[in-house]
């Protein structure tokens, strides 16, 4: 196996656009990934059913971001084994844009600036490519509402996407995109890092609002180090990653234990397999 | 020695004689001196001439090109449509390849005392001002400037008197000649003290790829405390050999802003010279270039600081794809008296295909003390992370790249202050970036007349 294709011919897989039938469940089985020859994921198993909120925790370097990027199809990450399906599709065979059109969304930990591309143009291109273009007036009104809810200054509309944004502004801009695109599964890679208490609440509420608007159909895979954001977005399940594997899974109480005891007990006790705790 | 003196085409002594006989004596002398200089010079050579080191025109046969006839109606209509879409309020000067000139929508300017008329007419009626305008362009210097000085016909002339802020811009359309012909597009502008003008110069032709030759000069004289916005757009047909000199001479306290877009022609060698002659003169040169197919586009810029406290800034952004080639060289020359000069030149290149080539050589030559000058140059590809970020939002790879390239040009285009003009330029660029298939060079262009070939 190899890294995700960046160009693709052939018909759009079912599920592109909005007419979707299969449940938006993510299934990751035995996923192995390397980057520039270095093995990072050593057989990840994970299942996120439609509409559930799963938290993915674990120490730095355990492979959480690698998993997120691999699911979205970053070409740098080479899949050497295992399988991933989403909404019944073989995700690994699809280009990143097709994954997005299937309903997958990644909130980047460090979003890339694209000089010269305004937030408005960027979002319109994204919506258009997903077959969900809005009339200009509706789009602008909707964008204005979402920005207000995220406490973003209206000037961000015409600013180049992420260009010169502060860390907190970038996080909000990611959630703004989430709100505008309304995916079926949102992978949020540390949406809370570097945020103060108020900004954290704004971001978490932003995610909640999209979930509620979609009547529980949007799933979330939330990568975080901190318990704090889980007070706003209560997870159905919590998974702990270590050294390229999911080593423990449990209910939301697992996050409490991590908050109290740290990762150490899990790493020692469950170094071999993803064990239920 | 150039052998064209015996040619039957447009570039011949006989032609010079007609032009000399039909104009004022001072201009006839100027044409004759230019012709003598031109015929004494050899065709520029990439092995002999530093300016032409990376642009090979050895296949150019000047004698093959016929005199241009009147512009086709469709082309006139296309040129008018561009003006109507981009800047309808501007006075329109349509310059046919044969020297015919028409002026429209100039009433409000004429009421202000602004002169907008054919250059040949101005040479008869306003000889002193035309001579001032032409004085920045020597007759005996460079090969193609000498040729232009000898054989130009038609063209546009604009004069803004002292203290007048031209109420509307002036839009000059230079129409490309028909297949196999040569034109000499000409614009001469004189803006007097404390006056201002916005000039758009649109070079446009039909879409076919037949060989053509265009040898042009734009001369601007900007007097004390005046302001000029100069917006050249070059979208000549892909088979065109285009040689152009653009020279602005800036007096004390004047402010010149050039914002250019280079999109067309098969082979171009353009000189953009800014002469900062008076204390405190300022110039900003911002330009975009999109090259594709087999285009070979060569820009050579000069920021010449002759007086104290002068400031110049140049930003040239190039995107090249397919087998296109961009060649840029830029010199900031600070003369001894230009103390406290402030000059910067920056060339950024984005390569979109393996076969595309871009080179940039910015240089400084500083003979004054206490100056602040700098230069920069970069060549890069579309950033993988930017492309991935867009694709992660559902945007297909090709469209992601188009957005990124459009964004690359945005910091120049965004500085066009007139909204309709900005939108028009954005649309022109979008067509180039989307790569609507350019006409393939005709089979006949295997012969010597094909510009932009790779010397195969």
Question: Can you offer a commentary on this structure?
Answer:
The complex is a heterodimer of chains A (277) and B (456). With 277 residues, chain A is an alpha/beta fold. Chain A contains nine helices and eleven strands. Chain A has helices at residues 64-72, 96-101, 119-129, 136-149, 167-181, 197-213, 228-232, 253-261, 264-269, and strands at residues 26-35, 38-48, 53-57, 77-86, 89-90, 104-107, 185-189, 219-223, 237-242, 245-250, 275-276. In chain A, the strands form two sheets. Chain A has a seven-stranded mixed beta sheet with strand order 6-7-8-3-9-10-11, sandwiched between helices. A four-stranded antiparallel beta sheet of chain A has the order 2-1-4-5. Chain A is globular, with a radius of gyration of 18 Å. In chain A, 46% of the residues are buried. Chain B has 456 residues and is of the alpha/beta class. Chain B contains ten helices and 21 strands. In chain B, strands 1, 4, 5, 7, 8, 10, 12, 14, 16, 18 and 20 form an eleven-stranded mixed beta sheet that branches. The radius of gyration of chain B is 21 Å and the shape is globular. The relative contact order of chain B is 0.10. The chains are: A alpha/beta (277), B alpha/beta (456).
Mean pLDDT of chain B equals 93
Largest interface: A-B, 31 and 26 residues
Strand content of chain A: 15-25%
Low-confidence stretches of chain B: 1-7, 438-449
> Helix coverage percent of residues of chain A?
25-40%
């Amino acid at each position: 196996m190899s890294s995700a294709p960046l160009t693709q011919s052939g018909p759009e897989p079912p599920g592109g656009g909005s007419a979707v039938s299969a449940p938006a469940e993510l299934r990751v089985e035995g996923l192995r990934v390397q980057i520039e020859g270095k093995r990072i994921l050593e057989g990840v198993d994970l299942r996120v059913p439609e509409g559930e909120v799963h938290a993915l925790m674990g120490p730095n370097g355990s492979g959480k971001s690698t998993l997120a990027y691999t699911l979205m199809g970053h070409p740098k990450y080479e899949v050497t084994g295992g399988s991933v399906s989403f909404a019944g599709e073989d995700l690994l065979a699809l280009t990143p844009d097709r994954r997005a059109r299937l309903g997958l969304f990644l909130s980047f930990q460090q979003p890339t600036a694209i000089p010269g591309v305004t937030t408005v143009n960027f979002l319109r291109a994204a919506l258009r490519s997903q077959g969900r273009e809005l009339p200009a007036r509706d789009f602008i009104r909707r964008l204005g509402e979402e920005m207000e809810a995220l406490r973003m200054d209206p000037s961000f509309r015409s600013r180049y996407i992420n260009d010169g944004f502060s860390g907190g502004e970038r996080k909000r801009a990611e959630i703004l995109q989430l709100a505008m695109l309304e995916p079926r599964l949102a992978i949020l890679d540390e949406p809370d890092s570097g945020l103060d208490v108020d900004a954290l609440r704004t971001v978490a509420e932003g995610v909640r609002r999209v979930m509620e608007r979609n009547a529980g159909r949007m799933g979330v895979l939330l990568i975080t180090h901190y318990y704090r954001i889980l007070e706003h977005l209560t997870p159905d399940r919590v998974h702990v990653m270590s050294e390229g594997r999911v080593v423990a899974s449990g209910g939301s109480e697992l996050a409490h234990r991590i908050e109290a005891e740290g990762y150490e007990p899990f790493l020692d006790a469950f170094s071999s397999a993803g064990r239920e705790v | 020695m150039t052998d064209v003196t015996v040619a039957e085409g447009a570039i011949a002594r006989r032609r010079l004689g007609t032009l000399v006989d039909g104009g004022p004596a001072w201009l006839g002398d100027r044409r004759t001196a230019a012709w003598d200089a031109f015929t004494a010079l050899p065709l520029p050579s990439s092995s002999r001439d530093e300016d032409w080191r990376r642009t090979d025109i050895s296949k150019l046969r000047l004698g093959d090109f016929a005199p241009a006839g009147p512009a086709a109606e469709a082309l006139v209509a296309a040129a008018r449509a561009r003006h109507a879409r981009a800047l309808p309020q501007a006075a329109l000067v349509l310059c046919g390849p044969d020297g015919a000139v028409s002026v429209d929508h100039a009433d409000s300017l004429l009421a202000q005392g602004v002169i907008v008329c054919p250059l040949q007419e101005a040479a008869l009626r306003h000889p002193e001002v035309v001579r001032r305008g032409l004085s920045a362009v020597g007759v005996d210097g460079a090969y193609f400037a000498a040729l232009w000085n000898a054989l130009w016909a038609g063209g546009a002339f604009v004069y803004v008197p002292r203290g007048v802020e031209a109420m509307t811009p002036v839009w000059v359309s230079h129409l490309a000649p028909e297949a196999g012909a040569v034109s000499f597009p000409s614009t001469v502008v004189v803006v007097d003290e404390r006056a201002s003008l916005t000039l758009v110069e649109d070079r446009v032709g039909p879409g076919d790829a037949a060989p053509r030759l265009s040898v042009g000069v734009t001369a601007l004289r900007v007097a004390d405390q005046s302001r000029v916005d100069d917006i050249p757009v070059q979208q000549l047909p892909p088979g065109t050999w285009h040689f152009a000199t653009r020279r602005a001479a800036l007096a004390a306290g004047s402010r010149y802003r050039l914002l250019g877009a280079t999109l067309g022609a098969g082979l171009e060698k353009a000189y953009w010279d800014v002469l900062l002659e008076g204390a405190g003169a300022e110039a900003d040169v911002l330009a975009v270039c999109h090259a594709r197919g087999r285009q070979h586009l060569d820009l050579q810029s000069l920021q010449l600081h002759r007086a104290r406290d002068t400031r110049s800034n140049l930003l040239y952004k190039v995107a090249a794809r397919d087998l296109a080639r961009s060649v840029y060289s830029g010199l900031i020359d600070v003369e001894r008296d230009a103390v406290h000069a402030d000059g910067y030149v920056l060339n950024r290149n984005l390569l979109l295909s393996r076969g595309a080539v871009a080179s940039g050589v910015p240089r400084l030559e500083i003979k004054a003390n206490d100056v602040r000058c700098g230069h920069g140059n970069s060549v890069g590809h579309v950033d993988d992370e930017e492309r991935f970020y867009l694709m992660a939002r559902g945007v297909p790879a090709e469209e992601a790249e188009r957005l990124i390239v459009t964004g690359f040009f945005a910091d120049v285009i965004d500085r066009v202050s007139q909204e309709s003009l900005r939108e028009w330029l954005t649309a022109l660029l979008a067509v180039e970036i989307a790569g609507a298939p350019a006409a393939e060079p005709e089979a006949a262009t295997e012969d010597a007349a094909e510009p932009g070939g790779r010397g195969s």
